[in-house]
Each structure stands twice: as C-alpha cells, then as structure tokens.
Amino acid sequence: GNIAKLFLADKNGNDVTLERKGNEWIVDGDCEARQSGVNVLLSTINQLAVQAPVSKNKYETVLKKIASDGIKVEIYKNNDHDKPFKTFYVGSSNIDHTGNYMLLEGATRPYLMHVEGFYGYLTPRFIVRSNDWRKKHIFKYAFGEIAEISTKYPGEPQKDFTIKSLGNNNFELYNGQNQKVENIDKPKLLSLVSMFKERNFESFEEIEAQSFQDSVAAQTPEMIVSVTDTAGERTTVKTFKKRIENGEDLDGNEIEYDLDRFYATLYDSNFIVVQYYVFDPVTAELDYFKK
Length: 291
Known about the structure:
Layout: E1 3-9, E2 15-21, E3 24-27, E4 31-32, H1 35-47, E5 48-53, H2 56-69, E6 71-77, E7 86-93, E8 100-104, E9 111-115, H3 130-133, E10 137-139, E11 146-152, E12 161-167, E13 170-175, H4 186-194, E14 199-200, E15 203-204, H5 210-217, E16 223-229, E17 234-248, E18 254-266, E19 270-275, H6 276-279
Antiparallel strand pairs: 1-2, 1-6, 2-3, 3-4, 5-9, 6-7, 7-8, 8-9, 10-14, 11-12, 11-16, 12-13, 15-19, 16-17, 17-18, 18-19
C-alpha cells in the first residue's frame, strides 16, 4: 500500500505526525498540513538511493553522530497504521553536501544516501517541528460552506451579532439576544461573509513562554469570532490586545498596545499573532449592518 502516515522526531524533543485523510494530509491529528511540504518529503523518501556505503573506518563516527543528532523517520503504509513499515535515521550531510548519512533501523551499517539529480543536503526536507507543517489559516471557507458566523464582544453585548445561512446565498442577521434584525444592508452582510474565504495569521507565538501565553489567554477576550460550517465543525478565534514596551504611534505619542498586531487563540490550543490589517475585513459590529 501507499504511505499513509509519517512520524518524525529529533533529539531536541520535537516530533510531528503527518497522516493522510482522504486527499489531505493532517498535522498531529488536528490541522491541515502544507501540501507542498508533504509532496517534497514523499518524493524525497521515494527517490532515496544509496550513493555509497560508509567505509569501515568511518562507521563509528557516523553512527555516533546519527545517534546524537539524527532525525528519526517512521513510515506507515495504508494497511498497518500501528507498526512502521520502515524506520530510518537521517544524519548530517557529507563534507561536499552531495548526500546524507542514513541508517535503516535493524541494519548494522549506515549508507550515504542521495536523491538522483539533486545536489545539496536533504535535512531541510525532514521538517520535525509541528508548527512548520501547519497551514496558517484562521478562516478558509468557500461561500456555500458557512452555516453561521457569530461575533461577540464580551462586556459590550450591544455590538454582538450572529449571521445565519438559509442556503442559496441567503443570510439572516440576529442580535445578541438572538432576535432577528429586520431592515438590514444586504450587500454589507454578503460582503462580510465573503471575507471569510481566506484569512491567515502571521505566526505562532514562539518567543514568549507558555506561562505568558496562558496568562494572556486567561484574560477576557476583546472579541470572539466563531464560524460554523455546513458540516457542523466550528472554528473559534478569541482576540487579545498585544502589549508593547516603549511603543509610540506615528505622532510620537506613547502607546501601550501594538497597533499592527494582536494575539489570538485558535481552537483554544494555538496561540497566534495576527495582523489587524488581515483580520479587520471580518470584523464588524451589529450597527454596521443596519440600514
């Protein structure tokens, strides 16, 4: 059978599981993987060829190096998701970068492996950090996929609204008390819905410690935006202001919060940095839609 799952781990405690679900690849069970990266990795694995056996006097050195900083790669086939079909270790490249030392689990000797016609070392293709595999979508919905959009402003419920789809590009607007709002500006409503087609975040927060992220996420969000698709799956984003040290606006006035970026949690588990510029088009308040 074909490759259905890959597990990669390094010696620094990073690991990632990539799994095929239908035509898509999923990262760590919860998020769409970058298909281009998956394609490169699969073709690399499929095209690996022995360039040369490692000479006896180099054995020890190469094995030690693989043991200390090699990347473990487990390959699973369709028919067996629990037992790897093959496990190998990717070591460093040789001196002139024509290949990488690799060791197949169960084998006694390492080999210098390469991809025919590719000059350069292969390590960058074996990406071990989960975040580097994830697509950076906050929202990605075709027009007909959206069943409901709900935006809440904790502490300012008069701004809350929910948009519900009736199908065929028909949408209704409800206020925070779940009462239908009549006499609305339909084009504005349709325009907002269309903005959910693709909104990406800038990065995962990787500088600040987990304790800092947890303390931000424990605060009351500025805004909570939830989108439910026609299959009943929901994406919820909670936004938080991002403090900055010694910040100034364009006029030189002191500012406490970043004017370009904010923090957000996605599915509660991903702590991300988002640009206002990207998120503003999906941001609105109830009054915006009233005629």
